Amino acid sequence: MKYILKSAVFLLVLALSGCSEKASIKEIKVGLHNNNELKIQIDVNTGSDADVYIKYWPNKIADSAKLVTTLSKGKSKHTLVLCNILPKTSYAYQVITVDKGTETASKTYTFESRELPEWLKDQFKAKSADDKLIPKEFKNGLILINKRYSPGMAYLVDYKGRLRWYHMIDNMGFKVINFTKDKTLLSILGSNDEPTSYGSQILEINLNGDTLLHLKKGQGDFKQTIHHEILKNTKGELVTLFVDQKITDLSHIGGTKQDTINGDGIMVMDQKGKQIWKWSVFDALDPFADKALLKTKKDWMHANSLNYDTDGNYIISFYNNGQIWKIDSKTGKVIWKFGKGGDITLPAEASFSQAHAVHINAEGNLMFFDNGIDKHQSGVYTFKLNQPAKSAALDMHIKLPPQIYNDRMGSAYMITPENILCCSSKRHIMVLTNRKGVLLWTLEASVPAYRAIFVNSEQLSPVLKP
């Protein structure tokens, strides 16, 4: 822990009056958690095993709500992490000891957070035409953004563009990141030498910044390069896309007898890297059907997102053929293909090219960000699918301004039934739009985020509050 030299409390040795000697507080230390300017660590030593937590609040803001850390149980040495820290702000706090159900509060102490270092300042710039048009649901959450090159950064930013939380890793980038139902951040890590969304490590951290899981290529059955997606299933197993290489004789089309085709697959592993299930695109499609195989063999299909349908089967999108497939999560059978040349009828008024961030939204509809390379205009699509009939009806199509056309990467997620958060990765910009495509808010970023993921207050609680 790096101590806060300017803190009003640097090192305290005290005993609380009014509580038993056994549960008394012997020592308090205040500093930075993992050298992170927005996380304050308070170490508390008690006379005997006890439960301890901390209440804290901005000291000079009238009627400010008190925030609470998680409870440290049944020990005499406690490490508690305070998030929700704003730079250069005075905070007050009390240490609460719990002994046999009885809570005792210490007197109130203070510390002052430090100013953000220059390299963390001015990373994001938010604008809105009218703050009243921004839905309260959006204000009551944070946006998860990742920096993909070393040193890797994961950011949580509020709608005002303020950095509210971050986590940094050395020598690697956060290639892809996801917020899980377990209130953790699950990511693919990769070096600067690895392609944009490809990596060789899996890292899971909690909101305190503590490492929960760190798998590296070579451990267990984790032998392949992974890319574009990292998820958890209902069993807590890791689900990702991997590069599947097939050695093939391409001499009859101008290649070599021992040529390599790079395809894609879905892999499920337990948290120790043991393979549970695997599927390959080579099991479902003949690469020789691709007349341009010699040109596409280095990245034949380019799977770029993976998610679940409501029945637990997989939905996967491919950049190179512009299709979205549904895959049976048990048998690996392709259930349907959606898009140009697919077997679900595409509505006449809807055509998309190169989908990203495919998922089923809160209304049960298929939703994705459309790169729109055919028309040089990106946008958002949602479709109501009639899967038994293999038909689709257009539910929503948002055309984003041509100025933020984004031919690679990107995302679109519903915040409310009327509002959608879009990420135009290559333009370094995120926008909040309504269903008519009117921009209500923009966030310019210093990094080309792969996606922008909205995390609401319930998911952040109790560690972070927007």
Automatic annotation (TrEMBL):
The keyword Signal applies. InterPro entries: 6-blade_b-propeller_TolB-like, Arylsulfate_ST, Arylsulfotransferase_bact, Quino_amine_DH_bsu. It comes from the Bacteria. Gene3D superfamilies: TolB, C-terminal domain. PROSITE patterns: PROKAR_LIPOPROTEIN. GO terms for molecular function: aryl sulfotransferase activity. Residues 1-22 form the signal peptide. Keywords: Signal. The keyword Signal applies. Pfam families: Arylsulfotrans. PANTHER family: ASST-DOMAIN-CONTAINING PROTEIN (PTHR35340:SF5), PQQ ENZYME REPEAT PROTEIN-RELATED (PTHR35340). This is Fibronectin type-III domain-containing protein. It comes from Pedobacter kyungheensis.
